[in-house]
Amino acid sequence: MRRLSNLLVALSLAVSLPGMAIAQPIEITILHTNDTHDHLLPYDTRHHKNLGGIARRSTLIKRLKAKHPRTLVLDAGDTFQGTPLFTFFNGAADYDALDRAGYDATTVGNHDLDDGLENLEKQDAHRHFKIISTNLLDPATHQPIFVGSTVYDLEGVKVGVFGVLGDDGLAAVAAKNQQGFLFVSPTKMAQAAADDLRKRSDLVVMLSHSGLDEDLDLAKHVSGIDVIVGGHSHTKVEHPKVVANGSWKTLVLQAFQWGEYLGELDLTVDQGHITRYAGNLLPVTAELPEDPKVAEVVAKYEDQIADRMNAVVGAAPNGLSGDGKYSRDSELGDWTADVMRSAATADIGVMNAGGLRASLQPGPVKVGDIFSIYPFDNALVTIDVDGQLLTQIVTTEAAKAHEAGALQYSNLTFRMEKGQATDIRVGGEPIDPARTYRVATIDYIAQGNDKHVLFTKGQHYQATGQLLRDVVFADIKSHPTIMPPATGRIMIQGEP
Questions:
Q1: Contact 272, 200 (CB under 8 A)
Q2: Can you give the residue ranges of every domain in the chain?
Q3: What pTM did the predictor assign?
């Protein structure tokens, strides 16, 4: 009887002692978001109304935590930048709300560095959740600036988490904000991070702000990562993508953007292995009541700027759609490029699709609408570009996979045929290689950020001293009724 008693004690310890193998299947849940971009309040799109809102998301998180006690709540970065709440409060509103909503961790996205590393460190201070970033290092010590990795104990299951900013994510950080840290490519350190955490954990999760393509590629070459919670490409991954690397399999997740969905991944873990999984995206809609404590946090900030943001400056009876802005020109992109060209008295206007963060909905145009569309403090500049370089810029930019419209143009048209830009025209006339064209764009593009390096070959860089947002306000003051321009400046082969 004493031997039997000792055996039962030993079995009990095998289940409960940290670091020991799990003796029976255990259920855990990972809730996840990415690229929420300062959308703390519900918002409208052209096709849907009253979406998202972190107070509603918090209610859903609490309901799921009550149902699944072993739950981690994770975010894959780009919490900052997208509405006036970031413009005026530099991320404090976002991180206050994230903390109150019960998040365990986030990682660094490119837009989280929009006010520089010093601001991110300031906003990180005294938070309950962790910023986990394994590949942003202190240049002096070569140690992670934030939490390099951590292990969460979910009542018997140890989950190790590390976090990365991807190569494409780094490229989207303005050069002036790439100061103060040493970047190590995820492909150079992910295997070591996974190996380290496998020694201390039953499961390994990578938070990644890299984009879906980079995540899928990394999963093919790095073993030991059970789950990648991804962001940056704003991809709607409705169910986990399974990537095989020999006998190892990794689940890759991403939950679209702006908190429209809360991702849920339910796992059954048996002796350090996932034996069952089910994942989907849960819509955050008006049917969910707001968590009053989180709503109070958001209101504290919103109330300080509400009067200014609600001031009406014009009207857009039909709105300006930004739909399809990466694959072709859009109403919003064309209109913005036109405004830039007119303000700078230039031959051509060029705007990056990524700088247009929301469509303009039909109806009155408020100050807050303009801040939401143009949240970045980008300035209008001009450069001189000869016809040969202009041709190279257009053909190179248009040939990027699925991004023919990544730049939106004014007074310039071209055709896309078999992935190549042809019949490039300025003002209806073929480009003259011997002519110099004056191009109005933003400093972010002219300085070669986000891989737009050819623009740095332009001559006579001239700053206008005006933010793009202010240029837009001035144009609306002169033309208070906004009508969408005709699209079709980028003509796709096989389409009308």
A1: no
A2: 20-301, 312-492
A3: 0.82
